[in-house]
Amino acid sequence: MNQALVLVVAYLLGSIPVAYLAGRLNGVDLRTVGSGNLGATNVFRTLGRTVGIAVMVLDIAKGAFAVLIAQWVVGGPWWPIAAGALAIIGHVFPVWTGFKGGKGVAVGAGALIGLVPAASGVLIVLWVLIVILTRYVSVASIVCALAAAPLAWAFGAPWSYVAFIGLAGLFVIIKHRENIQRLLSGTENRIQLGRKASPDPT
After folding, report:
1. Residues whose CB is less than 8 angstroms from the CB of residue 166 and which lie 6 or more positions away in sequence, other chains included
2. What's the predicted TM-score (pTM) here?
3. What are residue 103's phi and psi, to 5 degrees?
4. Which site in 25, 40, 47, 144 is 20 to 30 Å from 162, CA atoms measured?
């Protein structure tokens, strides 16, 4: 019973449409502007840095709490993994917004915080540095998705965690396939740091 409840809670936590709610509070339906993606990057572009950072932090918290609740209630390696997976699925396919959500980067980072905190700290620093240097959020997200499993292994995570993190990273990369196409064609939009940008597709 506890296990089933933990999994339901994990999905529901992940499915909280933080970006959508932030948009609505500011009179915008983010599904109809910019990329149409209900993630922090579209919020950043459309509503500005402060709201974008707030949404990112809350999305990270969704993944972290899903894993931590599973660790606390049922323990073991597999239930926290399942909770992290369902939090990501809930974020990408939220029932509240017609199963149209984000790409799972921030929620996945939160799940990683719960599973391998040291690796997540390195990845967060790496993500921020890449965004500052390139202004491509997609590049930062893809690089971190690729680096997550090797870093988890380097920090001594159990193989079950490493395997899950690798699969989650692959899922995030697949969700960025359109960004990859635009990067290859030179049409990917850079994020404007320090001010609100016009809503471009990302």
Report:
1. 148, 149
2. 0.91
3. -105, 0
4. 40
Average pLDDT, the chain: 93
Residue with tokens 């699969």: 167
Cβ-Cβ contacts under 8 Å for 164 (sequence gap 6 or more): 81, 84, 85, 115
Tokens describing residue 23: 């948009």
Domain segments of the chain: what residues? 2-185
3-state secondary structure the chain: CHHHHHHHHHHHHHHCCHHHHHHHHCCCCHHHCCCCCCCHHHHHHHHCHHHHHHHHHHHHHHHHHHHHHHHHHCCCCHHHHHHHHHHHHHHHCCHHHCCCCCCCHHHHHHHHHHHCHHHHHHHHHHHHHHHHHHCCHHHHHHHHHHHHHHHHHHCCCCHHHHHHHHHHHHHHHHHCHHHHHHHHHCCCCCCCCCCCCCCCCC
Place of tokens 């971190």: 144
Q: What are the tens digits of pLDDT across the range 74-115?
A: 988 999 999 999 999 999 999 999 999 999 999 999 999 999
Residue type for position 111:
A
Which structure tokens are listed for 144?
């971190």
